[in-house]
């Protein structure tokens, strides 16, 4: 071999060594960046799962509170209906009592009493009508 051939061979060998070192350095940098990326992605995924579980637990609490509120509203509605029914019954009873009292008052309208003994049957009738 000639000196030029040996020089070329050494230069090419040196270039390949430098290229190999550069490629190994680039490969290490890419693998390091990729590993860091995968680590960051896994960390973000784990945090998202924790956040999801927290949100689900909060959702369950809110649903329980809504169900409790709905049952209380329903109970209040039922109580209102029962109170309305009692009020209507009381009104009807008051109307019936007023009619009885009106009829008794009409019967005793012309009664005149000068003594307590004469007034007692009229008072008794009025009291029984108001009972």
Automatic annotation (TrEMBL):
Keywords: Membrane, Transmembrane, Transmembrane helix. The chain crosses the membrane at residues 15-41. It comes from Massilia antarctica. This is Chemotaxis protein. It comes from the Bacteria.
């Amino acid at each position: 071999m000639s000196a030029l051939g040996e020089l070329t061979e050494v230069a090419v060998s040196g270039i390949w060594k430098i290229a190999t070192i550069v490629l190994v350095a680039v490969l290490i940098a890419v693998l390091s960046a990729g590993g860091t990326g995968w680590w960051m992605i896994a960390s973000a995924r784990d945090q998202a799962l924790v956040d999801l579980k927290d949100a689900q637990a909060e959702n369950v609490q809110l649903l329980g509170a809504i169900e409790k509120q709905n049952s209380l509203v329903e109970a209040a509605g039922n109580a209102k209906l029962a109170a309305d029914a009692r009020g209507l019954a009381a009104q009807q009873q008051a109307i019936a009592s007023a009619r009885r009292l009106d009829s008794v008052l009409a019967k005793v309208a012309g009664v005149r009493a000068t003594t307590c003994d004469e007034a007692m049957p009229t008072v008794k009738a009025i009291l029984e009508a108001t009972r």
